[in-house]
Write a structure and sequence with these properties.
This protein is mainly alpha-helical and 373 residues long. It has a single domain, classed as Glycosyltransferase, CATH 1.50.10.20. A hairpin with a 4-residue loop joins β4 and β5. α1 runs antiparallel to α13, α3 runs parallel beside α5 and α5 packs antiparallel against α6.
Length: 373
């Protein structure tokens, strides 16, 4: 099973490279992903590029480097990091704290696991995230600069990055704020966010659950406080009950939403591999997390299309993928978010999510977890 998922992850990686990876404006030593396939001209020349999608691409490339280390993969990783910096033009930062947190997580893993020196970038991003903490204004850290909206997609990955940087007391304070402020007592799931006037945005997004699972698991490992493990138990159960059907993560979409389920799968795999403890509840959370990853990955693989011998993943892993074309409406950027193409499979986020999912399935299969029953 481990070899099977490695081969499938290879195929997903090759599809992304073939359809999406290009030099930035033809510059040697750079790479980024074209944000759609088939792409229109403004996408091919990186007028649209979507900072946080590229950050997740860097992190998924680290996954591939760890699964099967090669000099070619490591060179590609370095080109992607360089391409991100060049296309961002102004430096490593932008106005969105969630974007910067996802990039920080990717660069930290590239440095720690592949020895690529990102110290200056990480220091810059860490300072941005640390200084954004705003308890007097109702947070948390805001979604973006000069905003009164404090959300899980910013606070979850930012706290995880700060934990990995050794700022455990701040990371724990952020985890406690999320649990106290954004956990729904009825479902156990994590709300999207809260405004300074106390208005809660009550949407449940799958990647919000993944971000909190990763944070609480990291703190359980590093801090040893049982409250972090207990939060993981509760949230894994809530995800299983509310966000899956038949052992497969439900729904999906395009635009930014194309990455949501892939990120939940990534961090369910982290729970399966890293959650400490030998109590029955620890073992159950690890096992259930692994089964959700494998069940989702098998469904996504079964429902893929094969286009010129390479996989094309669906927006919803439980139903057959659709073939996109240039005639379909293209994704648009509005209000700080990327809206889906008419056929969501066109969006790079959907295909990257499929690759991310196969890498997560490889990790849990390599750890000895069996196929779903």
């Amino acid at each position: 099973m481990q070899r099977e998922w490695s081969a499938r992850a290879d195929a997903a990686e090759d599809a992304v490279i073939t359809r999406h990876i290009r030099r930035v404006w033809g510059m040697p030593g750079t790479a980024l992903a074209v944000v759609a396939w088939p792409a229109v001209r403004r996408e091919r020349v990186f007028v649209h590029w979507h900072y946080w999608w590229q950050a997740i691409l860097i992190n998924t490339t680290v996954d591939a480097c760890e699964r099967d280390p090669t000099a070619k993969r490591r060179r590609r990783l370095m080109r992607l990091i360089r391409g991100h910096r060049i296309r961002n033009i102004s430096g490593w930062t932008n106005s969105y704290y969630d974007d910067m947190a996802w990039l920080g997580l990717a660069l930290e893993r590239a440095q720690r696991m592949q020895l690529i020196d990102n110290r200056k970038a990480l220091a810059t991003l860490e300072a941005q995230l640390f200084d954004a903490w705003s308890p007097d204004a109702g947070g948390g850290i805001p979604w973006r600069k000069h905003s009164d909206f404090f959300n899980t997609p910013a606070n979850g990955p930012a706290a995880l990055m700060l934990a990995r940087a050794g700022r455990l007391w701040r990371a724990q304070a952020m985890a406690d704020w999320i649990d106290a402020t954004l956990r729904d007592p009825d479902t156990g799931l994590i709300f999207d966010g809260i405004r300074a006037d106390g208005t809660i945005e009550r949407n449940f997004y799958s990647y919000c659950q993944g971000a909190v699972l990763s944070l609480e698991t990291e703190l359980a490992v590093r801090m040893g406080d049982p409250r972090h493990r207990e939060r993981v138990y509760r949230l894994v159960d809530a995800v299983d009950e509310r966000l899956t059907k038949g052992g497969v993560i439900r729904g999906g979409g395009g635009g930014d939403g194309g990455l949501f389920n892939g990120l939940l799968a990534r961090y369910l795999a982290l729970v399966a591999l890293m959650l400490p403890g030998d109590e029955p509840a620890d073992k159950r959370a690890r096992q259930l997390s692994a089964q959700l990853v494998l069940g989702s990955a098998e469904a996504a693989w079964e429902n893929r299309l094969q286009v010129e011998g390479q996989p094309l993943f669906g927006k919803d892993w439980s139903v057959p993928a659709q073939l996109p074309g240039l005639g379909a409406g293209i994704a648009t950027f509005s209000g700080g978010s990327v809206r889906s193409s008419d056929i969501a499979e066109r969006d790079f986020s959907v295909q990257l999510s499929g690759w991310l999912l196969t890498e997560a399935a490889y990790l849990v299969s390599a750890a000895g977890y069996p196929r779903r029953r």
